[in-house]
Amino acid sequence: MGKQLKLLVIWVPASILFVALLVYMQSQGIFYMSTRRSTNECPNLSTGIDSQDQSQEDEHNIQEGKDDLPSNTTWKPCTFDVCFNLEKCPLTHPFAAYVYDDLLASSSNENAFSPQLLVDVLKETGSYTSDPAKACVFFGILWNTESARENVGRLETQIHSLAQWGEYGENHVLVELSTDQSPASSMLEGVSTGKAIIARSVVSPAKPFRTGFDILLPPLRTADADSMHLLSPLLPVSRETFIHFQGEYSPPQHPGPVTITPNHIRSLQQLLQGKEGVDIQLQCQQLATGKTKGAKEGQWMLCGDQKSRLKLCSKSMFSLVPSPGGPNAGTGVGIYTRLIESLMCGSIPVVIGVGVLPFDEVIDWSRAALIVPSGRYSDIPYILRSVSSGDIQNFRLKGRHLWHTYFSSSLRVVQIAVAIVRSRTLHPPPPAHDFVGKQLVYLPAPNHKQITSPFFTNNFTAYSSSFWNDIPGPLFSYPSSPFNPGLHFSRLNEFAFAHNASQSVDGRAAIESTFKENLLVNVPAEQFTVVILTYKRNEVLMEGLAKLKGIPSLNKVVVVWNDENDPSADLKWPDIGVPIVVVRGRGNSLNNKFLPYKEIETEAVLQLDDDVLMAPEEIEFGFRQVYV
Q: Which DSSP letter does residue 295 get?
């Protein structure tokens, strides 16, 4: 008892001293206990509470609208689920976007992208509204120029003064456009952008990229004219140069842990010594043009102008695209310009350590470029030697497709940015437009039963990765697609066998019966349309039309009339038991037979020239092999 009393006497003064010590430390700022971080502190800094709890509290504060969201705390917490209000974008209404009339930061470039061009794009797809009350998304456009960067405070005031900005810029998209002549850092550094999505070409630690929320754009071309003439042929596979790189390095004051420097490139050059056609230039002054573009610390400068770079690139099978170096280098227009120009010239990009690529939320870059971690740069010679000629051609074809789909013009770049925002809201793309040609002749068939194919049956299920990376592309939805077939016959057969094999001695009768039943249920009745292009060969056309009589699955015949003169009134059209429609296309062009005429009401289309004669049973047999 005496011993316990002694311990109690010692413990009470010790506890009092401990509490007093805590009070003193807190008053001196040595120890800080709080349930909420100061708004001036950076995200993820330790403030005496668990980082996971802090993250949950940040998201709660954003959702409740209680956080003042200063510029240095708006970036990491924002996700599309947290910072975008989907209640403004109901699926029962079309996707609608509003565009602010004035540029938030202008450019002296004569071909600069303007808000009116974006309005025209949205009107074409039926996604524009002039009434902000009906808008799902609000777009503001600014150009990344030196003059616009002189007054950050003024830019922030402009942004916060937008009519629909509100308190945090909810459902706003700020499109920061850059060219290969733009500064190497974002003009939005130090600007409070609240909950707005940032679409830009520059990523830096001062304004981090929020994956799944922000959109990374490619740099726009300085002169945004038609650049088809700048594209290089994709064949032959072999080229004069095996691999090429040109650039000059601006070293950082404090190199990062993994930095691709001139020493790394020289080391790579030595490893490639046994390979013919290695063209690596590490000083821009060696080039004939002598023109360089300054870069931020840790960045690789572009050498020459686009024309000179594409000339060298078009001679090479592979092009190096190295990552920047240093903890504050970020990624900028130089890296992405190299990448896009490689696609233009058909040289496979070898991307070393670049973490975020343009539109990589939807583009599968591994199909058009070799992506190599920085730590694997010394293995690049081994990797390149293993690439077959067939793979090289596949990379080139996919790269050319990506360039046409995503990077061929400033207009297309912004179209894709809008499409990405729309796809996040789960709104399907607008339907592709039918071609409405002048109808010259219509011959009905009253006794013929026409079956129209079901259209737009995959509005919310057809748009997978292939939708963004393959033909026909992400900008429009189409009535049907050959890539979304119904239940395949082999699967029906498996179903029949598993379900009925035990119901007969050998299972054959049950299998055949169930297969036929399911075939009729899962494959709807279909017909097809014949499209015939004709030009000044009336007798041949009439003979070809007469051959189409008696085809059971024929829906109608569409004759594309390429003659500048209308069909004569005394022309005798054959009675083939189905309607015949004669339409005029766009002038006298062989491509007119590929237009999506509104008269076509079936998924299946057979295209014939007017001098092609086929037996009806051959045509019917071919159709049934696909659809029945």
A: -
